[in-house]
Amino acid sequence: MLNREEARKKARALVAQMTIEEACEQLSFQSPAIPRLGVPEYNWWNEALHGVARAGAATMYPQAIGLAATFDPELIKQLGDVSATEGRAKYNAASRHGDRDIYKGLTFWSPNINIFRDPRWGRGQETFGEDPVLTEKMGCAYVRGLQGDGDVLKASACAKHFAVHSGPEKLRHEFNAVASKKDMAETYLPAFEALVKDAHVESVMGAYNRTNGQPCCASTELMGYLKEWGFEGHFVSDCWAIKDFHEGHHVTENEVQSAALAVNRGCDVNCGCTYSNKLAAAVQMGLVEPETVRRAAEHLFTTRYLLGVMGEGSEFDRIPYDVVECEEHLEKARQAAREGMVLLKNNGMLPLDETKLKTVGVIGPNADSRRALMGNYHGTASRYITVQEGIQDALAGKARVLCSVGSHLYLDKTEDLAKPDDRISEAVTVAENSDAVVLVVGLDETLEGEEDPNNPYDDDKGNIKLPACQQRLMDAVLAVGKPTVIVLMVGSAIDLGEAGEKADAVLLSWYPGAQGGRIVADILLGRLSPSGKLPVTFYYNEQLAQMPDFKDYAMRGRTYRYFENRPLYPFGYGLTYGDVSVVKAAAKENAVTVTLKNAGKMDTQEVAQVYCQNEGSDSAPLNPRLIAFKRVSVPAGQEITVEIPLEPGRFQVVNEKGERVSEGRAVLYVGLGQPDARTAELTGHTSVKIEL
After folding, report:
1. Catalytic residues
2. Which superfamily does 4-323 belong to?
3. Looking at 265-386, which runs of residues are DSSP E strands?
4. Tell me: the pLDDT tens digits for 195-230?
5. pLDDT per residue over 235-264, tens digit each?
6. In terms of CATH, what superfamily is 336-536?
7. What CA–CA distance (Å, rounded) separates 65 from 599?
8. How far apart are alpha carbons 247 and 387 in whole angstroms?
9. Alpha-carbon torsion 331, 332, 333, 337, what sign?
10. Which CATH architecture has domain 580-691?
11. What's the N-to-C CA distance of the chain in angstroms?
12. Rounded distance, CA 410 to CA 394, Å?
């Protein structure tokens, strides 16, 4: 099989035989065949954010933000391999039938490693959260799983959107994100650097917006970072981002100039039609040297040779179609849902004792919603299990399950001819006739997501409350006074307000994947312990007014590292059905040894977390920052001791010049969440402090 240097030589020899017009055509995401050279057609656009997407049946995992909540890089790597395996199986089958359409290739434009810096961003659900270290670890793991360990790429991963990209969605085609050298080096670039240098990601996708004045798909600053990091793969534009050069950013006057600027600055493949329309003309006009086009084409064919899809074949050609949605893969998706759901509140109601239940009420617009299982950039499962179905299946023959949709997701009624709140009386009746109530509320991709003119929420959120109709539903059901757990199905921080205070328990399921309803039921009934941790801060809604403007990309006042107030639920927080605490922690060379004790009566998994603060440093973030973590299993009534590696450089801080420096005295905190007062208040446990 070819290594990169051999693949590069073959690519150079092949491209040298092309006319310049043929080479230009290869830089479109829809690369046409060149029969005389034996080059097959190839479409570069495919998606695998949480399972192979948009190409028919495939295993669907929880949305990326739910994967982040697992704090389990090894599992994420395994899920990346599931995506690559199913992607290969589908590619093999489609290619045999001559089908080389969009979403049929092996170049997956995943993962999204942008920092979820502001809870209003609708696309934040696609990310691994607000923390650079967590994002780096999960992103690298997914890339390694997708691409595999051999010379032949099992699939090609993509680090996107490079860089400094996290809303507002409505302005992304014209917006200039301004970031200081410190924020670039400390927050926005580390995950990209790690994916390039450590995980050897095969491609990088530029963002729509400008960063510090230059369009991200043609930025000398950003391309300079890639060169500095030793990036050897190919660069792809976001879709139709190059036409934004002249239509939105106004840095060029027309399509020809935009095509020239992009390819001259290092954008190899255009998702869009600017290259296919005008790149050849730009060459003819002398705006682009032919060698520049050929160099870009060589990058693309190097990737295709490394994938083994240029006729030479690979062991991956033998992956059969029957691996798609096989039981092994479905179990990995269920494991991700089990590890990622976060128990935010529990006054003792959970777990439910199914031996004492006679009737359970399942209420809410997301209770029987398949869409609420999916998140955006999703595939198509052959079977879905909603929360309502999961509870019905789990209690079949044991207890009665009464159901009511309760309200529309966001409108004031479910039937056009009805009066407002037309399902609330039914919901109240269900609650009155139930021993316990499961109230399933939240959002879905129609309310939070990518830019969409049909989104009634305008993609991003103006506030972090649920729609008013759901607030009225929650108030009415909770007023009945029955033991009630709220199951929150969202991809971002939500303030439930008084409903969150009145509910006996709150379980955050995220968008948990095709069979997520089964896992919700298992957790509610105590068949397993929840163990997910928040990868984002949950704020009080009124705190948004105190945060910087959404368009301000400075990190001050944002995320747990720079937030100055008491959050609703902190980053890194999540309850279990056990009672685990860190009883001892000690630092050794390049590691921390941690002893955890479960004083509870139920086995559980936990996430040991290590935070660092550089005391006396003017450059350190305001609050201690996550530097390491490890998911562990802690049996009831037992102690375990684990070692958590500490990577070199994690004690350093970033100064205003963007330089990593050793400054101040590093102090470590080891616990099951942040070493802050709110985490201690919610969990009853504090972190162990280690002075180095």
Report:
1. 238
2. Glycoside hydrolase, family 3, N-terminal domain (3.20.20.300)
3. 342-346, 359-363
4. 999 999 999 999 999 999 999 999 999 999 999 999
5. 999 999 999 999 999 999 999 999 999 999
6. Glycoside hydrolase family 3 C-terminal domain (3.40.50.1700)
7. 30
8. 45
9. positive
10. Sandwich (2.60)
11. 48
12. 29
